[in-house]
Amino acid sequence: MIDDHWPLFGLEVSTPSLRLRLPREHELGALADLAARGVHPPDERPFLTPWAEGTPEERARFVLLEHWDRLASWSPDDWRLGLGVFTTDGEPVGAIRLAARDFGVVREVTTYTWLGLEHQGRGLGTEARRGVLSLAFDHLAAASALSFVFPDNQASQGVSRSLGYRPDGTTRDARGDEVLVSDRLRLDAADWAEVREPGVTVTGLDACRGLLGAT
């Protein structure tokens, strides 16, 4: 079984209506199809890397290539855990990434989420983020979580505020010849303790701790 060699395939975060897990190949294809149908309206540019602005085929291939690249470049000191977001009956609705560098020392993570257009506006992004934050804080003993979001991305800003994130400055990045300013938002463990809710379970983690630098 591949799970014996790569136990992250056995890791699952369950929330009341979602299951977050590393996608198998057929599930990855379904996520690529979902991205091909669109992840934001054409008049919006919510991502620093404008991957979702290409053709349907380009969006689908980006999802595949990014997934494979994350696995191929994995290190316990520098990892990006890309989980598919599925309903309890297995329907793909998007993806969420939990990433860290030197987690065993710094104890800090970042998150990144996209949902298919047809699944937005239902609170699923908030629920998925709550799931990975529970994994980070409640099970991996993270000290803080960061999120980087454009000031005009009201949906993502709202999710972060509802989960207790606080302003933590700004960042400046280049996208081609354009300078982009993002709000840096921080959620510390003490603030998470004030907003955490029951209903999130994590299975299969013990076998993964070494891969996550969290032994």
TrEMBL record:
It is an enzyme of class 2 (transferase). Residues 18-186 form the N-acetyltransferase domain. The keyword Zinc does not apply. SUPFAM superfamilies: Acyl-CoA N-acyltransferases (Nat). Its EC number is 2.8.3.-. InterPro entries: Acyl_CoA_acyltransferase, GNAT_dom, Ribosomal_N-acetyltransferase. The keyword Transferase applies. One of its GO terms (molecular function) is transferase activity. Keywords: Transferase. Gene3D superfamilies: 3.40.630.30. This is Succinyl-CoA transferase. It comes from Nocardioides aquaticus.
